[in-house]
Amino acid sequence: MLLETIKAPADIKKLSQPELKQLAAEIREGILNRDSLIGGHVGPNLGIVETIIALHYVFDTPHDKIVYDVSHQCYPHKMLTGRWKGFFDTAEIQKISGYTNPEESEYDNFIIGHTSTSVSLATGLAKARDLRGETHKVIALIGDGSLSGGEALEGLSNAAVLNSNILIIVNDNEMSIAENHGGIYTNLRLLRETNGKAECNMFKALGFDYHYVADGNVQEDMIKILQELKDVKKPTVLHIHTLKGKGYKPAEENKERWHWSLPFDLKTGNITVDLSGENYNDITYNFLYERHLKDKNLAILTAGTPGAFGLTAERRASFGENYIDVGIAEEHAIAMSSAMAKGGCRPVFMVFSSFLQRTYDQLSQDLAMNNNPAVILVFNGGINGMDATHLGTFDIPLVSNIPNMVYLAPTGKEEYLAMLNWGLKQTKHPVVIRVPLAVTRGGQPQEDYSELNRFQVVRKGSKVAVLALGSFFELGASVADKLKEQGIEATLINPRYITGLDEKLLTELAAGHQVVITLENGALAGGFGEKIAAFYGATPVKVLNYGAAKEFSDRVPYPELAQRYRLTPEQIAADVSAVLK
Amino acid sequence: MLLETIKAPADIKKLSQPELKQLAAEIREGILNRDSLIGGHVGPNLGIVETIIALHYVFDTPHDKIVYDVSHQCYPHKMLTGRWKGFFDTAEIQKISGYTNPEESEYDNFIIGHTSTSVSLATGLAKARDLRGETHKVIALIGDGSLSGGEALEGLSNAAVLNSNILIIVNDNEMSIAENHGGIYTNLRLLRETNGKAECNMFKALGFDYHYVADGNVQEDMIKILQELKDVKKPTVLHIHTLKGKGYKPAEENKERWHWSLPFDLKTGNITVDLSGENYNDITYNFLYERHLKDKNLAILTAGTPGAFGLTAERRASFGENYIDVGIAEEHAIAMSSAMAKGGCRPVFMVFSSFLQRTYDQLSQDLAMNNNPAVILVFNGGINGMDATHLGTFDIPLVSNIPNMVYLAPTGKEEYLAMLNWGLKQTKHPVVIRVPLAVTRGGQPQEDYSELNRFQVVRKGSKVAVLALGSFFELGASVADKLKEQGIEATLINPRYITGLDEKLLTELAAGHQVVITLENGALAGGFGEKIAAFYGATPVKVLNYGAAKEFSDRVPYPELAQRYRLTPEQIAADVSAVLK
Hints:
Distance between the termini of chain A: 65 Å
Strand content of chain A: 15-25%
Oligomer: homodimer
Helix content of chain A: 25-40%
Largest sheet of chain A: 6 strands, parallel
């Protein structure tokens, strides 16, 4: 393999054009090999191979700095910067992350896993360079999907007036994660159709020099344009048109399916992990679809990642005009949901825990302060073994400390559906629901949740009370079972509400219970358990909080985290014994 | 007064052109009267009078819906919708807020006090209207300054593809709060200079129909264009050029000074409240300016509100290239600060507590996860009597629960400067400093804060320990004094660090202390005190937390809030006695 000879990116400068083509083929092989084995971003990486080869061919990294937006597109970069084994050698694959990380390589400038950050980060690097009298090139590589995020747009407006050397490569593959949405794409299309010549050009409007490459998968063209732009000292946008999934037929043909994939069979493209069994994507869709048939005011919103919630093109179409994908624009999605509720509709915005983070101020100002009855479904909230950028541990502190908000934690399928049903029926509160992880029966659902903050006693006992929130309800039941082995009949409680305390129940508990333990599937800092501890602060009741420590864990498997955070029934029961002594 | 005859906006439809001119003059008188008495937004309201008269003349509110961005510009609207007494009648002034609020009037659609939200909110109203088969007009009125915020840009991109009836009026007065910054303004200028004719037009690029009015302060012109656009069914941008401060000479001449004003003398324009005495704006500027002379890597960043930190045009210029105002674009400011720190500079971003809320994900992903040593100064953090949209109570929960972040709470001037000095010297952490409110001596500063989370014992006592955070340190001292009257020599502690606990000290305290009380000038939910309660959860130590309740208080004077939250030394001492009994 040629890749084996590339010790540093400088080595590719010596290669001939045919050798560069071979290199591109090897990189594609590496992408597909890794993704088929452990899953990962397929289409974005396949489409950007020639661009990244050209970047390292023309520029001198790490002296020159490249910032990869979301780092969805960083696999080729990793292979060219000494990390090719992470794509070919099964023993090495897990050592290399799917995102850029300066701790992994000096060729990576930032840990990046959220979209739309590259332009602002590159602007900062460029400004620092200028103030320090340095002269290296700073480049942001951003996909068209990331362009619609507020931070990217703020960044573009500011990069345009930097009055200095910054190159922003807009990789336009006509796709966000799903199809693109928004006026930005109207303009990108016009620019493609006019070979970059249209006068009405949003990048020029902002003040950028602008260049267009019609086929960014032609190696020679990419090298040529970057050589031309190498010494340009003005803010410049290079708009390149590439083919998402280039070189892998299934991915070229079905771009959305192949944006990211679970492990798959290279020949057939079929997923190789078992996906059978009930899941919350189907449960949610089926519920909403049934309701949509009866209620024309229901509206479903997503922000660029419908596939993550099982909303295939077919399912999206089944909602007609009542489905809205706003593209990667979560801030807009929250404000729009609030206003749609104000306007008499019943909006349901589906979002990952990690991406909800982009909307704190919209949750507070646009939604909660106005008390509009929008519904938000938070998926993937909980402790997981993902990259540090994709943890699901921060949504409870984020949402639950905002006044007016009602954040519900269903324990299983039936309760989830009951809460969703209530959220859509009531008109008094913004309701956020933390979608459970496992499809279990959980606590006993009820029809009406309008009497806020009433915790549910599931098993009545004494001495020890276990407050087991949402997806940790099953863990709570296991803890109660384990305590039983120690002769303690613990009280088991399903708190249901994350945004308030059942002060009456908690006060009553103080009578027959010496220890209250709280279990939450998220970060302890700023979360649910601390509030229970504060409530009992002036009483003799002892409180033990269980949840995630305050850290950005990075690809640490859940069982290891559970041990670390003392989340096994054995550990918890041992702690209780120690306190009761 | 004509205004007295306007019971509802429909009444102005009968007025003649000369009467409308008289109405405009009366509205300007009302704006100046109110602002001179109690302070408020001057320039934005004076400039938009003719537009708002035209809106109510042409459209039928509240059937048609107008969304006012930031509601900086809503005074004329309030006077035309039954609330003119709030501008002329001293007894009524305090009853009417400076922002829109549906609880105040059915003509207001949202509580709005943060910028850049109007386009997204209007898009939601318009989409709800369409799904419900309604036909009213939806209009967003947004100032040029608000246009640079991420949420506004996300909104524009989505409004452009609504495929329906929405009108966005861009009020271009060539000013944000201070001068405008960013590529967006490059394009607005081009459009002004070409009387709206330039082909390179960012609004058209996004897909909007576009119209331009060269003088938006000419009543007839504004009525004429709105009548033309009344029945247009496509997403439309109406770009109007107006004069900020129109009709009040001092405000026309010095637009930045008159964006917002404290109470002033109408004749001279002089502020009528006493501003003498030391303040943190001057203290901060003087420190940073001295440092700037010695360190060319120091950079000062603001996001559209430099005046709020005393950074006059002259002071800004004194930093040369090392001062950067990014316009209203806080997300960008955080990412840029992180990257500038990565690039070897020492950025200091100055921001209000309330506006920092727009940056949770950037604080987490761009800054904290990358551990870059940027410094953020949070002004106005604390319980205050302001509008619900401008509270300073949420920054502690927001910042302090993010891993890696070091959030410091200086108690007074000397400690503030010592912490700022250390923040700029160290290179290991992102450091956020909560600028104190009163200029007091506070705790004892030290040179080095790199041993994190070491609380400082200021007075050593027994039985009761008072953990008094940041600007509540003086309150803590008063509580200790009050307890002394009851025969208790309390221990007084300056925690200094908000982002971590001094577990060693807290463990030692448990020996000689039965009660620990925490005082924080911010919301309790998710804050500092709850963590202390959780720490002592399994011990016999009693913990009492003091801070703000979880609510959006709205213009409630501080003394009343202090009573409500039991923040007086008397109340706290009484609580302690009750627990000790």
